[in-house]
Amino acid sequence: MGLSSAQCRAARALLAWSQDDLSSASKVAKATIANFEAGKRAPYERTLQDVKHALEGAGVVFIPENGGGAGVRLAKRADASIDTNETETVQYEEYLKNDAPPGAGG
Question: What's this model's pTM, rounded to 2 decimal places?
Answer without folding.
Answer: 0.70
